[in-house]
Batch of 2 targets.
Target 1
Amino acid sequence: MFELSPCHLIDTLHAGNARHVCSRARYAATDEHADLEETRPLALVLACSDLGIPPSSLFDVRPGELLVPQSAAITVDDGVLATVAFAHEFHGIDLVIVLGHSPCRVFRACAGQACGALSREVDTSLRQSRRATPPEKVHTARMAALLRTKIAGLGPIHVASAHVDETSRWVEFL
Ligand SMILES: [Zn+2]
């Protein structure tokens, strides 16, 4: 998978998700002690802090093939920006996937609450989602758009957004 363009890499991850959902995964979750020195990360996946499934399992890739920073409700904060910059400069990663999920316990806990910046972001997503379901999809697309804006000066990095239903485990690229 080394020289794949971002679009082909997305296709590869999509196919891996299909294997995962259909119980035909190539890589078992027990492979977690793979030699990370020999594994080159292919993409960065920004995941929510309460995502219940490791993205490497979800996309059926080897451990270490995805860099996975996590933040509450996939908030784009300074730590996320620093990690994306590191991934691009050090590993040459040019694909970032902002991976939302539902149900997101963080998103739902912050809705309508006075918990600072996180609640403001969640409430903005809820207002924009209107009747779209689940509202987490709108939030994911918003965070991806925000990330695109904030890393515009870093170079050619493709930012995709995706959503996983934790019950079915299907990933939908938005
Ligand atoms: Zn979440």
Note: The pocket of zinc ion is lined by residues 48, 50, 73, 101, 104-107 (CB under 6 Å).
Target 2
Amino acid sequence: MFSYIWFIVILSAGSNFYCQGRELEIHLDENPPKSVTLMCMNLPYDETFAEWKKDGSFLPEQPHHRFSPDRKNLTISPLKVRDSGRYSCGSLTLKRFSKPIDLTFIPAKPSVEPSSYNQVVGQNLNLTCDQIKAPSVGVTWSRNDTRLQSKDRFTFPTNRILAITSLEKEDEGKYTCIATTKYGSTESDYFNVAIFFPCSKPSVQLQRARVNEHNNMSLTCQHLNGTSARYTWNKNGHRIIPSNRFVFLDRGHNLVILGVQRPDQGIYQCSAANAFGRETSDPVTVHVNYKSNTTWIVSVCVVLALLMCAVVAAAYFKCRKSIQAADK
Ligand SMILES: *[C@@H]1O[C@H](CO)[C@@H](O)[C@H](O)[C@H]1NC(C)=O
Ligand SMILES: *[C@@H]1O[C@H](CO)[C@@H](O)[C@H](O)[C@H]1NC(C)=O
Ligand SMILES: *[C@@H]1O[C@H](CO)[C@@H](O)[C@H](O)[C@H]1NC(C)=O
Ligand SMILES: *[C@@H]1O[C@H](CO)[C@@H](O)[C@H](O)[C@H]1NC(C)=O
Ligand SMILES: *[C@@H]1O[C@H](CO)[C@@H](O)[C@H](O)[C@H]1NC(C)=O
């Protein structure tokens, strides 16, 4: 079984406290400790000497570093700003070192915590600068690397909160908070604010309201607002399932009907939806032009009737001629 090698850090600054395998922040503006003791724990018992590394290299001997005889305790006194860094201890013979801990003299890296991950237009948003331990740490905010001032819809209700009221599209961007002490400052990672728009009511756009049989037809679900909208289509109240004749393009924003057939005539509607709602268009009627059977039958009948008339007329005139000839 492997035993972990880990640390205890003791600050002797009146009250002792320790941390284990974590970041250790020392706020030099806050009554800093006179010394720090790093203890190498859980070395296998037959390992008599601990080795120390700082920022990946073996720790050089320094007058303000003191080791216990087994080198398992390292006391740094007096503490200097240049002692900040990443420390680990371990065993050379075992070739194993502890997880490092960071000794820092500036604020720990803050993080931005939003009051809501769904930043919907018109709503309010609070961004909190988190992970700040000392109240004396100052916080400033920036968007796209430009410092934000308290103005109009932007306020700072507390030292750590940026409050944005009635979100607008222009509030999109990369926000950071910066924690500052007189010894330096630390910036959070970017927090991306993306404004979502609920879908507004769509309308079905047709190239032509009448389409000839066997042609292709394209219908578009048009709408003004709606972030990452997805679309569904209905014909005569029934959901259209994409198929090789009903082709959905751009998540269904366009519906293309290939080789229109007579039953495709009907009433079409589309819906646009995202996480913030669904809206459905008014119905639109599509007519399919086709050569109907009745038209064909009527045409044939008319032609036949005309032919018969011609025959009858011809017979009549022929008859009359022969009667007139006989009369003479
Ligand atoms: C290491 O430091 C701790 C805390 O100060 C102490 O209790 C312990 O005896 C020390 N160990 C050695 C070997 O000096
Ligand atoms: C933002 O923070 C302020 C101050 O803490 C609070 O009054 C407000 O309700 C918060 N707003 C939101 C949207 O969380
Ligand atoms: C911030 O940058 C993003 C692109 O990175 C841009 O879309 C946004 O409009 C910018 N915001 C402001 C307020 O300039
Ligand atoms: C689209 O969003 C803007 C900004 O919120 C709003 O002013 C507008 O009324 C919306 N349009 C529609 C059709 O919903
Ligand atoms: C309909 O679209 C298909 C596929 O895009 C194409 O092959 C075909 O020629 C089109 N037909 C007509 C009548 O435009």
Note: Residues 12-21 have pLDDT under 50 and may be disordered.
